[in-house]
Design the sequence.
DNA sequence: CGGTAGAAAGTAATCGTTAACTTTGGCAAG
DNA sequence: CTTGCCAAAGTTAACGATTACTTTCTACCG
């Protein structure tokens, strides 16, 4: 139904190629003809058939994004920004939410490969690197977001997770916490990095984690981790040496933990200080406003988009590029035990 | 680089068509050949080139979704669900966030039209119906989400906004509020519907809105409306007859309003009860847990996806179908002035 | 045993564009 | 006047699949 090059060509008594050349600003077209063609294109509201074009050029002007949970503000923010950035250059974005399910994610990646996207961005829930070898085999460039995989050297954009752990833990120490616990996430790079940072910061303050003070959120099935945080914090509060500061893997976990603390009749931050990570936009409005390490999701989104566009244009950096965004801490009531310094 | 039908055909000494027939389970292929072909397909990890296929079939197996703000949990939830539902049937989803900008939205719609998506889903920020006439002209089916437009008869899936207003306002009245105010949203169908419901509920409780008790959030530029809510509530609290109940257009606005109320030294819900709309997942964790009307975003997502799939398969309902989802109220502390009934 | 039906394959045309050549005609240089 | 070159077009053949039709061969029936 929509207009084709052929229609315009017939209307004007020209050949299809001539029209195509006008479309792409090819030099060897006379000024008069060019104007006639452009006029007719406007009249018919001509839109090139991108499927036909990509069939021959090999480029689809399409980018794929796979995230574990689109409902999570961190990923939503990234998705929103990437969408906005790549649109400016004429790309459209396939987005899909894998629900933290490695199998679903693999399916989705396969689907995107079949669609011949020009680049793929993945915040992965995979445990193995096998899938990525497949992508490499198809020579489609890709970028990992947020989570890295051991043994896989590839483009990466995400926060510096070790720095996250250091920032949060040092802050708690500086606020006078003596027994700082950590509620850690699952066995993925982000959680491991933050745990490392936590350990490192404790060491530089001449502390060590007390036994039982590193607990893991269970795989309780709620993606956001609120329940996991509640349960983990309950465990912590029951331990012999009750912690007076908790660094939580992320904000939802911190919410759960705070609820557990309040439910136990304790005060935040006087009895237990809490720091989360993610700096979700509602952190200001909580019962106790939550201190949180901001992962710079906006910067991540922008950098990822820029890198993706570069790769799409085959300005591929020879060696895979890894961009570590430095986090920063936003202090709110949940961890403020001293009058603001300075 | 990826394998083509031709490659398989050459390898096995068959014609391309035979391979294509196997691919599509065409009956006239012998069992032995079929197996040979399938085997080779697996070996090469063959993925059909969807661009080539859509060029000839006219179907792209692609769906477009445009929302005003992907960061808003309501839209994120819908996007996530639609993505999951349509994936099951082999569709991929283009998602883009228009930033509440009608012009950007129009561009994006144009882009999706050029891509020949099979269906389009739009939560629109348009003021006029012109753009949609264009879509109709291209004969691409579309569905409006959440927001309707006057004078446009088309497929729609969204919450029953009038019912939202009635539900929230009646609840406040039943909780003993005598001066119920409303912080309304911008001039779009959702805000208008909720305002209608508010008026209707007041009337059925033999009340009328006091002068100055319907205020609008300014276009303060923050999409979520927290600042607008704060300012609007401040105005309300300064009015001659201070309201003792406020129905807020949505949850972010309610958050802003609650902060204004607390900042003014008043208590929630004793002095002023508050009800929002959206039932955002963090409502439980707020300083005062927020009562909120749930819009059933999950149901909206599922219904929208189902309708989209039906349209994509050309099982087009003769007349455009409008699905109004009934909302329900989730009562929390911010509006609970009486001991729980029953 | 001839005729025909049907199973299993193949041929040719097509979808809308683009890439790589080729043609046409006009004009300037030799 | 011929040569050669350039501008402005056109021709032909892809791209990777599908559709509609045709061919080939086997088998079965009367």
Sequence:
């Amino acid at each position: 139904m929509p207009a084709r090059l052929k229609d315009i060509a017939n209307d004007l008594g020209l050949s299809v190629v001539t029209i195509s050349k006008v479309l792409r600003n090819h030099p060897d077209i006379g000024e008069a003809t060019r104007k006639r063609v452009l006029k007719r294109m406007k009249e018919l509201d001509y839109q090139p058939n991108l499927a036909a074009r990509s069939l021959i050029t090999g480029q689809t002007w399409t980018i794929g994004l796979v995230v574990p949970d689109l409902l999570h503000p961190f990923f939503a923010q990234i998705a929103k920004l990437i969408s906005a950035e790549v649109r400016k250059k004429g790309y459209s974005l396939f987005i899909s939410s894998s629900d933290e399910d490695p199998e679903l994610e693999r399916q989705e990646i396969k689907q995107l490969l079949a669609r011949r996207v020009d680049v793929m961005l993945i915040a992965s829930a995979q445990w193995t690197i096998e899938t990525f070898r497949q992508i490499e085999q198809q020579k489609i460039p890709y970028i990992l977001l947020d989570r890295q995989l051991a043994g896989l050297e590839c483009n990466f954009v995400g926060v510096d997770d070790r720095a996250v752990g250091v920032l949060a833990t040092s802050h708690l120490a500086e606020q006078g916490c003596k027994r700082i616990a950590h509620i850690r996430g699952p066995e993925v790079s982000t959680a491991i990095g933050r745990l490392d940072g936590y350990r490192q910061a404790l060491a530089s303050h001449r502390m060590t984690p007390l036994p039982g003070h590193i607990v893991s959120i269970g795989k309780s099935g709620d993606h956001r981790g609120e329940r996991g945080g509640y349960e983990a914090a309950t465990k912590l509060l029951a331990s012999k040496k009750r912690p007076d500061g908790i660094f939580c893997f992320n904000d939802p976990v911190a919410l759960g933990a705070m609820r557990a603390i309040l439910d136990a009749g304790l005060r935040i931050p006087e009895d237990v200080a809490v720091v989360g990570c993610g700096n979700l936009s509602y952190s200001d409005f909580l019962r106790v406003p939550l201190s949180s390490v901001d992962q710079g999701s906006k910067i991540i989104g922008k950098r990822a988009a820029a890198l993706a566009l570069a790769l799409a244009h085959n300005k591929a950096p020879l060696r895979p590029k890894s961009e570590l965004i430095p986090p920063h801490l936003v202090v709110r009531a949940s961890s403020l035990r001293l009058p603001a310094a300075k």
